[in-house]
Design a protein that fits this description.
By secondary structure, the chain is of the alpha+beta class. The chain is built from twelve helices and seven strands.
Length: about 375
């Protein structure tokens, strides 16, 4: 909370105007030391401004060059601490609430505006390859990417071990005409990159669901249990739910970026957000379909297990009825009474055994004819 109060003080307009520029970021920091800054560059007319080592040493240097010669700065961060991000927040006048969200992560996808800065949160999805789907398999892994978009800067903050934006930066640098549109072009490309990842993961999850569906409705192997697939189905359903939580909340921000005019979004770039929103709607429909399909598969699997249990109970009941015949007769003649019919008859034993055999055979045939055995 103390950091938030400090940041609230430094982002006031009056203090932004009077604060000395050289105090906003520690330029004496050893550039070889470990840092959350993954990449720091200045772009002018869609091209990266080459320095001696190809990059800017600090975000402060990047903004100095932007203010002197125009263009915009793109700062890439990976899991910054409060201390590491505090100087950058002062340099670019970021709102304390957005800074807190960016540092601590675990946010829902959203779009918020703070003065002349757009703050966008994206959930990234990574599909985890697995040889076999089990009841404990992790299918998708989530991460987060936050994007601060201003008039002359873009700051991307990434959380998680996947979802690197290096390839995205290189792809944009190979398209100077698009990159010349400024920070809004980076925001669009980031949104498109995230949604394209959703599409790829949706295809992989579909394959897992198809595999489970085939196994549930196929003829079970001898000795296998119909209910053994319930754990795998439930685990897959949990993973789809995590996927859904990343996709669904992002739909509203994409619709706002594509439909509502914003000063920070180039009108030419805004048209492209409609395409991203369309792709996101398609992914959302697929994820909802996955959830409903898994519900149906789970119900079918449980129904099959119930039917199998009923069949087992009918077989047990049938054999119990057959065994009841000799049990009853042997129980009667096992009593220790001296005067019993046919007790001392020569043909009594063969006759009783034959009678038991005929009755048991008749019951067995009748039960088998009715499908109980």
């Amino acid at each position: 909370m103390s950091m938030i109060r400090d940041l609230r003080a430094v982002v006031r307009p009056s203090l932004r105007k009077t604060a000395p520029l050289h105090n906003s970021y520690d330029t004496t920091r050893d550039p070889s030391a470990s840092s959350a800054v993954v990449d720091c560059a200045v772009y002018r007319d869609g091209r990266r401004i080459a320095e001696v080592d190809g990059t800017c040493r600090t975000p402060h240097e990047a903004m100095l060059r932007v203010r002197e010669n125009g263009g915009f700065a793109w700062i890439g961060l990976h899991e910054p601490t409060e201390e590491e991000f505090a100087g950058i927040a002062r340099e670019f006048g970021l709102h304390p609430l957005a800074v807190e969200d960016a540092v601590h992560a675990h946010q829902r996808p959203k779009l918020e505006r703070y003065d002349d800065t757009l703050f966008t949160v994206f959930k990234t999805i990574h599909y985890i390859e697995h040889a076999e789907l089990t009841a404990t398999s992790e299918v998708v892994e989530t991460g987060e990417v936050m994007c601060f978009t201003g008039r002359d800067f873009v700051i991307t903050v990434r959380h998680g071990g996947h979802g690197s934006l290096r390839a995205l930066r290189h792809r944009l640098e190979d398209d100077p005409e698009l990159l010349a549109k400024g920070p809004s072009a980076v925001l669009h490309s980031l949104a498109d990159h995230v949604v394209d990842g959703y599409i790829a993961v949706a295809g992989a999850v579909q394959d897992d669901i198809d595999e489970v569906e085939i196994e549930v409705f196929s003829t079970p192997d001898k000795g296998s249990s119909r209910g053994s697939d319930a754990g795998r189905i439930y685990q897959l359903k949990r993973e789809v739910l995590e996927f859904k939580r990343a996709v669904s909340p992002l739909l509203r921000p994409m619709q706002l970026l594509s439909e509502r005019p914003m000063r920070l979004i180039d009108p030419d770039i805004q048209k492209y957000f409609r395409d991203v929103a369309d792709h996101l709607v398609r992914v959302q429909e697929e994820v909802i379909g996955f959830d409903e399909l898994l519900n149906s598969i789970l119900q079918a699997n449980l129904a099959q297990a119930t039917v199998a249990q009923n069949e087992d109970m009918r077989k047990i009941t049938s054999w119990a009825a057959i065994v009841a015949v000799p049990t009853m007769i042997c129980g009667v003649y096992g009593m220790n009474f001296e005067h019993m019919p046919e007790l001392r008859w020569t043909y009594g034993y063969p006759m009783v055994m034959g009678f038991i055999g005929v009755v048991c055979f008749s019951i067995h045939r009748m039960l088998k004819r009715n499908g109980w055995l």
